[in-house]
Amino acid sequence: MPLPNRVRPDGTLFADPARGTMYGNRGGRFHDPENHVVPTRIQATRQWLCCVLSFKGRKRKVWGRGYTELFFCDEVTALAAGHRPCMECRRRDALAYRAALVKGLGFADTPLFPEIDRILDVERRSGRTKRTHRLPADQLPDGAMLLSEDGTEFLALRGGNTLLWSPAGYQARRERSSGLATVLTPPATLAALSNGYRPLWHPSAEGL
Question: Is the pLDDT of residue 1 over 80?
Answer without folding.
Answer: no
